[in-house]
């Protein structure tokens, strides 16, 4: 696999591919370049028969703090980002191989959206989970459609509509994550890779792929649902509420930059 993509760090450990988001100074916030590189990496994993399991992780202090709000507010993220993001989430969710998410620090917005597409989620005890898109004047892609199937509709409403943030023990109790490891990023990644190696060695590839397909059939978002989401997101992106949130974000960012100079 290519390992020279600027916004990703890709490593191989035997039959396991480890894809790390690599914008640590931005808490691995996703911009268009990151999304394009990540989409390409997933597609390569899908077609590379020597890759039998995938681990998703983040470099630095967090897994992923969401979409790059500065790039979005400065209109450096085009509208094409949003259908490509959902297509990438679908690709991750439907890879015919085990996909494990190693979570530490922030798992916010786009980070949680990505984690929801994985087969297993292993988190550090100090990780935090949220979907704050509504506060930002946006829709968190089709992740509400995924979230409530893990945690129930009532809990999903509290996170999506009222911006609840959950810690790892709460996320484990609610069924959002599968395991908590109290040893920081390295411990979480080590545990995720070990689990991926076990799956790579023990799981029959064809039957695993077919069983995963069967599990996903009832929850596939159809084309009408995707089209409806994209139309609603366009309304949000052009609404004064989002413009206000974007300007407030830029003011905070620029204020912090000014204090550092």
From TrEMBL:
Keywords, sorted A to Z: Isomerase
InterPro entries xref list: ClpP/crotonase-like_dom_sf (IPR029045), Enoyl-CoA_hydra/iso (IPR001753)
Signal peptide: none
GO annotation (BP), single: fatty acid beta-oxidation
Cited SUPFAM superfamilies: ClpP/crotonase (SSF52096)
Pfam families documented for this protein: ECH_1 (PF00378)
CDD domains: crotonase-like
Keyword Isomerase recorded: yes
An MF annotation (GO) of this entry: isomerase activity
Domain of life assignment: Bacteria
Name of the protein in its database record: 2-(1,2-epoxy-1,2-dihydrophenyl)acetyl-CoA isomerase
The organism of origin for this protein: Sinosporangium album
